[in-house]
Amino acid sequence: MIRAYKFLLRPTVRQEQALAEMLRDHCSLYNGALQERRDAYRHASKTSVRYGDQSAQLKEIRAFDPEGQGRWSFSSQQATIRRLDKAFAAFFKRVKAGLTPGYPRFKGIGHFDTVTFPKDGDGCRWDSTPRDRQTRVRLQGVGHVRVNQHRPLKGRVKTISIKREGRRWYVVLTCDDVPAEPFPATGSSIGIDMGVVHFYTDSNGEHVKNPRFLERMAGELEKAQQHLSTFPKRTRRRTKKHRAAARKVAKLHAKIRRQRLDHHHKAANALIRDHDVIGYEKLNLAGMTKTPAPKPDPEQDGAFLPNGAAAKAGLNKSILDVGVGLFLNILANKAESAGRLVVPVDPRNTSRTCPLSAGGCGHVAKDNRVTQSKFECINCGWSGNADHVGALNVQHRAGLVLCVAA
User: Fold this and answer.
1) pTM of the predicted model as reported, rounded to 2 decimal places
2) C-alpha angle with apex 96: 95 to 102, nearest 5 degrees?
3) Domain count within the chain
4) Residues 20 and 84 both lie in one domain
5) Among 42, 279, 318, 374, which residue has the fewest nearby CB atoms (within 10 Å)?
């Protein structure tokens, strides 16, 4: 298996300055490569510049600027150019698919936070034999940086990335050949129904509370954002107070992100520890959080009819606060490591179908769901919690999928 490990770095003051310079120079390289592609397409009869063309220029760039670009790893600079190449590949893919293209944009120094070293030992080296009880990572142009390794590393280190989050620095190690650690079999299967009122409801009828991290921090976050917005545009990024206000907003968002991530890891651990098979709905999250299309008023030019955009915006915010996609990714990764099985099922009518596994009749109707939380079958009269019904049907469909696969 391939797994990623993220550890906090403990750089000295000079090393922190060198890390910031490394990000700045790689950001400059990225923007310069993007500018070259734009100019070639606009002014040279729509000429396309490829990754190989730009990678071949690195030797000249490093020789021209030995104190800047020449200080850093050649392979990390190739990875930065390949990052731009992937952005263009994704852009053309969206164009062919008829989606919103999203042309690659220039990166500000505050939005370029990662430098990748494609191979351990090429411009970087993970110290597998710590000295004086301190783990270190060696980076070309920076030196040996201390690492707060809070858990053991398994597998073989393939790539190393240096990432900045606010004022903190992290090293992200991508490891191959990570051995699985199967949990003992429990003989239990379960279905979960993700929601907004509850984080999820399982087929045993248990509701897991939705922590609503963004909503809990909304007041403090609103004050910080209002304070940031009071700075006029002409002074932004020029004053110490503005930078402090921007760091305050970023710090609050980072705290919310860490809280959500910690909660998702603990919830996923609880599921894979107690169950061999976990069924979940394969939701179209992009469609669920899509903004309603405007409705032109046929009787008045330039006017629009109400389309419920304000209410939908509140629902979208609640759905995104839950972090369904993040949780399901974490659950799938942990299940693979633990030898568990996660089964995605069709989400259609899971909360409108009378559950056969609980003594229901299997009748499907919109009117079966009386309210957001109440289910009552119009055919047989079976009643229960709507989220519990959805989880029961997810568990039943997951069992059918496994039977067909077998």
Assistant:
1) 0.87
2) 15
3) 2
4) yes
5) 42
